[in-house]
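DM from R.C. (forwarded with permission)

"hey, sorry to bug you on a friday — could you get me a structure for this? deadline for the figure draft is monday and I only need the backbone to look sensible"
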Amino acid sequence: MSSSFFAEAKKTRLTDSPLYGVNTVSPEEFLGYPLGERLLRHDQINYYLKEVAKQNPRVSLENTGHSHEARQQLTAVITSVENQNKLDEILAQRQQIKYQGKQGGPLIIWLAYSIHGDEISGAHSALKLSHMLATSEEKWVTELLEQAVVLVTPSQNPDGLDRFSTWANGYAGKVVVTDPNHKEHKQGWPTGRSNHYFADLNRDWLFLRHPESQGRVALFHRWQPHYVGDFHEMGHNYSYFFQPGVPERTHPLTPAGNQKLTAKLATYHQAALDEKKQSYFSRQLFDDFFYGKGSTYPDINGAIGVLFEQASARGQQQDSINGVVHFQEAIDNQYATSISSLKGALALKSELEQYQAEFFKDKHQKAMRKKPRQAGLLLSTNNDPSRIRALTHLLKQHQIEYYYLTNKLTQGGVDFDVDSSIFIPNKQAQSALLSAMFDDRTEFIDPTFYDISTWNLQHAFDLSVRRNVKLELTVLSQSPAQFSLPTWSDDAVALLIDWRDSQAAVLLQQLLNQGIKVKFAAKPFSILTSAGEIDFAAGTLQVPLKQDSLSASEIRQGVKQLAQEFKVDVIATNTSSATKGIDLGSPDFKPIKPIRPLVVSGKGTSIAEVGQLWYYLDNTLGVATTLIDSHDLASIRLTDYSHVLLADGNYKTLNDRFARKLGQFASEGGVVIAQKGALNWLSDSNLLATDLRSERFYKQLFNADGLSFEQKSDFNAKQQIGGAVVELKLDTSHPLSFGLNGDRLPVMKNKVLGFSPSSKAFSVAASYASQPLLSGYLAKEYQSSFSHSPAMIIESRNKGAVVALADNLLFRNIWLGAEKAYANALYFIPALH
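My reply, with the result:
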């Protein structure tokens, strides 16, 4: 990924015009047709914003980077001409609230639209709003722009928006079709909701795996808004929603004052929609819990975030139980609540400013400037410096303060090394967000969750953590230890790479791309190096320096260049003779073959999880990856591929003929990697011998006797697994466990599925712990039933194998502590299984 994706948002002024309110082009004039007559493309949105900024001195633009498909992301900065001329001063004032405790400058209001690309009414209303703010001479507008800066981001998901608008426009006829079954309203796979890698960007505010999110969060912290409006669409049979959401489902870390202000702002939305005679609802259906969404990330960062949901036409017009949903009316509704947001924020300006000042009270000083000794989190990735670098990069984007160790420490019997450990002070400007990112609660008032119930980074990164550790400034540094490769002797016979480093798999793939032969150790060993005797775990990579196709110097140069690029330690040895364990020439060093993965996609597969597999293979490992829709599988030769990956899904489109074809592929040496719902299809197709436990089995564990009608809703919520972190116990000698951290592994569980513990037809790599729940909500019935049952298995198929995973170990591509299991399945199976 380009480093530009990680750059902070930067202001781009285009040109100042002496005239405004006269020659500023309207959306209709710019397009040549009424706004909403056709669905806009992202380039049209950007061109319009640029035209307005050229013509109007009230408007400048922020460029927050590009999407995966290189679409520019622009935000209109709209305020008075006087404020436009001192934006740098205003931005400097905004930083003072965090770090100096001073609230100054104008009110900052950010209205952000269409983070789901097929929820497109918001993007259209944003253009209408931008033109109005640029040209209106109404008293309230001029007062607003004198006292506030309004940020308008019409399109937060450029790639998804273009995918959807192309689809809907392509199937819109001259005669409007309101039938929900019409193709205009039934998107193909994948839908426009997600981005290029099929990720839901409204679940990525905390994890920041995608450039769109990185630019958006940089914009947030650059401006530190007081109010954020987050505009969406929902199912066509609903009306209109705005927050507050369900009171019992607000995250406990969100201050009570936040919800009080949200309720006050709601009165303005009520009035605006009542005037339009538009029905609406609040305090139902949607929660305010997961901080990785656009309406809740502001809540843990000192702002008021408000979610808006408009019934969607998913095209021009669509029948619903409430009558026909009109796209034009959806635009007007989003415009109305955009106006009510501005009016409400302006009226509550002093309260919003006071709330934000109170939020950051006593948090603003830099932790280490005032006191030489601080309490905080001591974290380690245990022999994986690359993972600690990934963590610090994430923390930096969220402006969370952290420090590196200058000396090795031991706390609670755990070693914290200099190159794989950091310290995060508790007391800092971002302490609230820090608490949220490492929150480990398992008790909840209401077990209903719109998304996941936990997201603790300790588990996602599989960290060793010691809380409330007190450290002196003298053992900390703001700079990491410099990476440098050890000197390699000219007499070296092989280069060794620790598989525990999370970038080792990336390095391996690049070596294979260059034609360099690599082996992996099936068993641990110890060997003499220039640094003395070193112990190496199973999974260690060996690059022999004697190879047929390349000279030793060419191999050394290739490995050195890649090792420096990915900051992976590579150790040379002058002997093949181990002091303990297997020698380098042992048959237990298995050659690694180049891989050609095929990911099954299309109808019947999970869009999100297919995207996560694709992201990992393509964006992380850098391996050429083929995506094939399930309906095309019958016509391709599986022997052209080494691995077939099946994400969650129902796979109803696959028939018995393909099942036999896939079985033959595995028998002849191919590897099938399947997870979650795909296991049901494998089992039904006799491709998985292990007994599965599906949702039907687990629901029998719950007693519904004597429940009233009102109680059934809570009972149903209890049976859901929205997303809880559970602990696996690993067989460390198993190839699927190579390189993972010790004998335990936290994973995100969000599907009711498991293996029967009584089945004997498998090789178990991991089982659920006796008390599996680590964080989040998981009913006690599930906890006891999953206990000790298998979670990761391999079934042999003659020369090949089936790798079966009960859970998605890549969850949203933030589960960096577990993703090595996929690398093991790709590079070590079927050589060892």
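R.C.: lifesaver. The longest helix spans residues 327-347.
me: no worries. The CA atoms of residues 388 and 420 lie 6 Å apart.
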